[in-house]
Protein 1
Amino acid sequence: MKEKVSVFIVLLALLAMQPMQAAKQQPTQPPSVDPRAKEMLRRMADYLGSLNSFGVRVQTTREAIAPSGLELDSDQVFDLHVQRPGRLHGVLHSAAGEKQFFYDGQTFTIHTPSLKYYATFPAPPTLDQLFQETINHGLEMPAADLVFSNPYQALTHGVTSGMYVGESLVNGVNTRQLAFQTKNADWQIWIQSGEQPLPVKLVITDRRRSGSPRYTAVFSGWETSPTFDQSMFTFTPAEGDRKIDIKRAPGRRAPKPMSLPTK
């Protein structure tokens, strides 16, 4: 990622773990997914897709493996507010400072208050289209998979196997734990039990990389029918804010859903 825009780039996505055995799939075999796991994931995705607006806090831990083999964690907190089909506001908190995201169905803006920098570009009218456009500008949007109009399609892209693990307690919340594999990644998701099947926790293990680093996201503070002041989706520069350019990155494709490595 180019240095001039690195201050704005967010690596989330969307975000204790007992070892699980999963049957290895031969390349010629069709996907082997437990019907219970598929049904539970679809129910969660359908519920998310039915929400006209929502808010959630996502606490993430990204693991990196040092050359010595030492595991190093980096934490972030992302507060996300969405109004479909074309409104989004987010605030990312990290050791590097606060970053703000604004999308009003016409314009997308990223703002770093501490540096008084902001960057903006014309945006398409829907959130689904927006995420391709952010990739074209060299950016990754946090928690994008939860915002898609069809979350199930995004979540199951490249899945080769899956299973229902069982019931589990996560931060005092009763959940159902599911586990899936793609070609080069394992991922688990914990879904709240009951009438609101919301995601509570996500763990992705990247098997492409040495040490198989993990990415963990914990979701809390869900609001499932909030009413927003529409002004929160539009950025208004403050005195002293400076606009910088985000150059398009020709030929870049949108990342695989869930940022799961599949090739």
Protein 2
Amino acid sequence: MPRGGSAAVTLGAGAAASQGKINDRKQTVNNKNIIENRKNLLNSFFLQNITSRLCVLIISIVEKLMSIIHPGDLVTLRGMSKIKEKPLGIVKRTWSTNDLEIIWLNKLLAKRYALHTIVPLAKIEVISGLEYNSDP
């Protein structure tokens, strides 16, 4: 009988040891999950911070460009200022959507480049601007 009793105690100790190892593994997995969640939160915070800063930067650049281009300016497509045959246009008005309404002077070239009367600001380059005086 003593052998059976000691075997039961030995089995109980082994079960407790294996249960302790399982609990340690669960705790390790939980710690890894917590660390991973914290990393994800930090990454999402930094990404949101960077994207908000980029949006502010883009808005400021667009506002600067909008202040450069005025109605009456002679414009062409961006990057075509040195090409001989390029579509030329005069800015008629600026829209609140950062688009420009342009009257194209050479309609055939404008048609060749598939240009419409309302063009995004990013596609336009000023060739010659009007001088604006604040004093009458």
Protein 3
Amino acid sequence: MIPSQYKWLGAGLLLLVVAAGAYFKGRHQVELEWQKDKTAWQVTYDAQVAETNRIQGEWDKVKVNANDWKIKAETAGNDAAAVARRLRAYRASCSALPSTASGPSDPDAAGGEPSDPQGIDAATERHFAACARDSERLDMWRVFYSQLRGSQ
């Protein structure tokens, strides 16, 4: 028969092997779950980075377009101011001539220009509206001719 100390030693070793097996099996299961969670997190993270980059690209395009429109608006404003100055100078040069040699000058009779600034502003607005219509028509013709050249 086996002495009792060997029985206890065998039981202890068996218990140690079972405990180590349970530990390593549990550790392996935890590592598998961790890898699965890490993969899912990485996919989510990559999707968020891609979405952020897409939104940043759209924002950059909007800023470029906004800057272009701002420059165009400033240029149009400067052009309008220059035209208004030239119209006022023209009006002043026309109204300085008297209608008769003996009477006071009549600005409406001399140059046919309105005597009030609102009339000049209205004329300026009409002029710019006509320019906008002409520009629109030219753009349409430009597109039409470029499509004709592209189809040949």
Protein 4
Amino acid sequence: MYESEAKSKTNADKLAKQLEMQIADTMAKADEQARQLAEMASQKSRLLGENSDLNRQLEDAEAQLNATQRLRQQLQSQVEDGKRALDDEIKVGSAFSTEVNLTLIAAFLIGKASSPLASEDAPARVPATPRAARRGD
């Protein structure tokens, strides 16, 4: 029986060594997984921070876009107002120019009809432009 006890003890020692090796492997795997878990937690924290920064940047960009669109609308409105004012000025200027030309023509015709110097021998001076009439040419 002594032999069988020695054999059993040897088998038990082998089994104990195998179990110790399995425990060491399991512990190493657990340590690796704990390290990976800590690394992932750190990465998650970093990504959440980056996400927060990007969301803040997006909000800032959207606010700038809205402000730019409002400014664009204001400028377009000012351009339209300017165009209307210019059209009005052109209409007033055109009407004034027509009135001045008609007045000059009427003055010329009245002057020619009532002037004793007006004859077919003496050519009458008619201003070429309204500007020349204002200067007295």
